[in-house]
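Q:
Just now I want nothing more than another pair of eyes on a protein record. Here is the record:
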Amino acid sequence: MSPKWLIWSRALQGIAQTGLSHADKIHPFDVDQYKKIREIASEMMAAGCNTEIEPIVGLFEKESGFASPKVAVRGVVFHEDKVLLVKHTRTGHTTTGVWVLPGGHAEVNETPSHAVRREISEETGYDTKVIKLLAMTDSNRNHPTLHHRYNLFFQCEIIGGTPKTSWEIEEVAFFSEDKIKRIPTWGDTATQILRFYQHLRNPSLATEFD
């Protein structure tokens, strides 16, 4: 569950961002008030993260338009009863050194299925097709971040390509179900994967959400 300070600061930032998106239609006094709200949100976030306020202000100022959750996609690629995982190398990456499902943020003008296939290809070298939306989860429940995010998990099947690494990915490998709990994974990744194995065995299971 997200800490209260994170929920409050993101809510204030959302109000400020949405309000400032109409800056050309509202009174200058209201514009200043929304900017003050953003400053308060930045102070709360910086205090909660125990960091300097300037980087937070910079991140918030880059956000514009109506405030809404961001969308991330993850590929759950099963092959011969094993699941495909990657290990990041990039310095400062929150998941460096542990195994995760391939994926990332969806990009503008992409459908969700295209986004997950692109991410899988970029991170692993494999070409895939999407079989099913397994789950859509709220980042507030398990891994709260600076920005509110929805995570879409798609079951995918390999249709081509060969494994590869990159500047961001140091390892690409398949793991059997019995090994998932014995390798270092990010957050609740292991629990999620074990649940997705149930979907693999029982395709009629409904998509999970929230």
Summary: The first strand starts at residue 70 and ends at 79. The domain at 70-209 is CATH 3.90.79.10 (Nucleoside Triphosphate Pyrophosphohydrolase).
